[in-house]
Write a structure and sequence with these properties.
four-stranded mixed sheet, D-Maltodextrin-Binding Protein, domain 2, 2 domains
């Protein structure tokens, strides 16, 4: 009986001595995306590992805060945790945009290497803002969709190309296309009215937004693999006891591994589905590849210049054999 009492005391010291903690976790992405499903599984894993003492409620689709408000909300402690796309904060600091430098990392192995090269500097920057990174997961590579075949760089000239951040605006300009700012939720209407004729987005967006209903041509150029980050306010994390902190970090490590694997698997499946839905899937021509690679070199150099020594160190580490 005494032994049982000691065991119960130990268990209570781990979880029972603390009141149930509840975290709200907003994300700008819909409940049906693999990213949101992965975060939901993370929340379930934390609940299970802590015996229900830490409950995380996910708020998908910008239902709690709009996508562009989420990072600020967790920084200021309005919510304890959140998920957002890192490159969305690149106007705040270009270091956040490393994974969206066009044509720098164009497959999952390269993306992982770039992520690891940038992680110390990015984690330090986020920590200075009161945020702790739990895990990050890439979207499938941003590929080229077009209403008409694109075989030479001249096919872009004068077309209306969707832009949604400074990088995509610059790409359009360098291709001598006209950038048109359109968010993903507005893309269907823009295509229906011929406001946009070509654009870069992921295979996942093509399937989930049914872009195959309006767009005929798909070229898997994988311009970049942007990452979503799930973070926690450092004060909220430090308010947890040690066992809870360890449970959160274990669930986060599992979520990162699961998310990367899911993203790569789904990319292949999504591209097959786009083809099955009637899209023409074609490798970009050598001329297109060279033009895009040249754009990538110029934009990488611009990014390094904007960041300074840290930027050069990251790219050098990434490119080291």
């Amino acid at each position: 009986m005494k032994k049982f009492a000691l065991c119960m005391t130990a268990a209570l010291s781990m979880w029972g001595a603390h009141a149930e903690v509840k975290w709200d976790l907003p994300t700008g992405y819909g409940a049906n995306t693999f990213q949101t499903e992965n975060v939901q599984q993370f929340a379930k894993d934390v609940d299970k590992a802590t015996g229900g003492q830490l409950k995380i409620t996910l708020h998908p689709g910008g239902s709690l805060y709009k996508a562009n408000e989420i990072k600020r909300a967790v920084q200021t402690g309005q919510v304890p945790a959140a998920e957002f796309i890192l490159s969305g904060a690149s106007n705040e600091n270009p270091l956040f945009g490393i994974d969206s430098v066009p044509f720098l990392a164009t497959n999952y192995a390269q993306s992982k290497r770039l992520y690891l090269a940038a992680k110390p500097a990015q984690d330090k920057l986020l920590a200075s803002q009161g945020l702790k990174v739990l895990f990050t997961v890439p979207w499938p590579g941003q590929s080229l969709y077009s209403l008409k075949p694109v075989t030479t760089p001249a096919d872009f000239v004068g077309t209306r190309m969707r832009a949604y951040n400074p990088a995509t605006t610059k790409i359009a300009e360098m291709l001598k296309a006209q950038p048109v700012t359109i968010q993903l939720s507005e893309l269907g209407q823009a295509l229906a009215t011929n406001t946009v004729q070509n654009f870069l987005t992921s295979s996942a967006s093509g399937v989930e937004s049914k872009l195959y209903e309006q767009v005929k041509y798909f070229y898997p150029v994988s311009a970049w693999l942007p990452r979503n980050a799930t973070v926690v306010n450092i004060k909220a994390f430090e308010a947890l006891d040690k066992p809870a902190q360890e449970a959160v970090m274990k669930a986060a490590a599992d979520a990162e591994a699961r998310g990367w694997a899911a993203s790569e698997k789904l990319d292949s499946e999504y591209i097959k589905e786009l083809g099955a839905k009637g899209m023409a899937i074609g490798e970009p021509s050598d001329a297109i590849k060279k033009t895009l690679a040249d754009i990538g070199e110029k934009m990488t150099a611009d990014w390094i210049k904007s960041v300074g020594p840290d930027g050069k160190a990251i790219v050098d580490a990434y490119r080291k054999p």
